[in-house]
């Protein structure tokens, strides 16, 4: 019955449609003028609405097309800039070395003159002009993107970054606009600014350093308000708090990092050492980390990159505990387990490299313990070291780390020089690497052969013109002459060493190295009579080496020269150091 009714309605549809049209015409004839006017305007209204919708769709498509086009062009130019910038740095290094070789060896080396000559060189100018053109083109396309979407902070962030190496101050102004200090803004901008201020602070004196670390903490805090478990922000904040002496707050941040990922345990250990936490407490902490890292490593065995991360952290933890037997056992186990994975070859290389690293670390640890105990080097001890070096060389032939350690040991323990030369003879190497020549220069410094040391160090700098460690050693060597020309050269090299760190942020995170750079810069300023300027650098030097007697003595002298009452504080610290020794 229902089907018949449905069929009847279906057959009557044409009749109903015709009836609807006749009724509409009859109603229209009887309608008022206002209704008739409205009905007549309906087609125009429908056309206008359809036109607006169509225009919106076309505009949206056009905007989307332009966004894609401008974004692609900006990225292409950015890639080209990075390639050209890499070539520029390579060319500058080679040209600098060439100009150094051309300098008159009979005259004092004038690094600033060489740098000025390099800047005026036609090829350097041409390459720099091309880099500027590329940056300006990228900025133009980034600005077009912002014009299309003014509220898009990601576009504004990329626009700010396009000013890097062209106008750094403009870059900072643009970044601060989207990542202000008084409130959370763009996450990536806050992270970039936090890292920037943290690294900039490392080679700044006194009050300026404290201000920059404070800026880094502010931006890291704003980033954490947006993403409370952001490990980059936590690491920067913890490191900055640590550097300005707020150890309790730094410990809290570092403990949060460890809870998020046990692979972040090393800063806690470093902080414990500086705070004078009993060794037993640190050992308990490391043993708990050993358990956590071991579990993480085994759980993540199937994912090579994650397994490698925890494997490295685990072995480093065992090295801190000096559990050398456990390291050997774990390495052997991982070698056996790795054979069952499709990428067994990759895993074998990873394990071999970590084993080589652990052998070198074992040697460093043994040598350090020998120095601390004040014990003499023995033939049996040397043979143990050499055995490890030979095993490392079997894994990594011509290992630079082995050369570095062996040359340093030959310098420090001349009685065993022939044995160390069996592994690597720097004097017989016709083309020794820069770090080896640097070590030979340091050996001459220890013998107080300053002229010979400077010759070695200059040769090292020719091989590695951008190496801040060599520049720092040269500054120290020139200071040993205690002459106006020596002070002038020491001031220049110590300043260049700190500037070179701008390209090497990994060194700026190394507190002990930064302590050495700051001490040398302070010593050069002090030798030049610039006592007030030297104070900040010596204070920075004590961050990485709190008990460094040379820095404390220098602070007493500088503060006394400028009539500061703080000199008494450091005199008391000096007395405490004397009691400890």
What does this structure look like?
- This protein has 581 residues and is mainly α.
- Among the domains are: 58-100 and 111-174; 388-464; 466-581, Tetratricopeptide repeat domain (Serine Threonine Protein Phosphatase 5, Tetratricopeptide repeat), CATH 1.25.40.10.
- It has 28 helices and no strands.
- It has helices at residues 2-11, 13-30, 33-102, 111-120, 122-148, 153-161, 168-178, 187-201, 206-226, 231-243, 247-260, 266-275, 279-299, 304-321, 324-338, 344-373, 379-395, 400-412, 417-423, 434-446, 450-463, 468-479, 484-500, 505-508, 511-527, 531-544, 549-561, 566-580.
- Helix 3 packs antiparallel against helix 5 (122-148).
- The longest helix has 70 residues, at 33-102.
**What is the CATH topology of the domain at 466-581?**
Serine Threonine Protein Phosphatase 5, Tetratricopeptide repeat
CATH class (first level) name of the domain at 466-581: Mainly Alpha
The CATH architecture of the domain at 466-581 is Alpha Horseshoe
Instruction: Report how far the terminal alpha carbons are from each other.
Output: 112 Å
Number of helices: 28
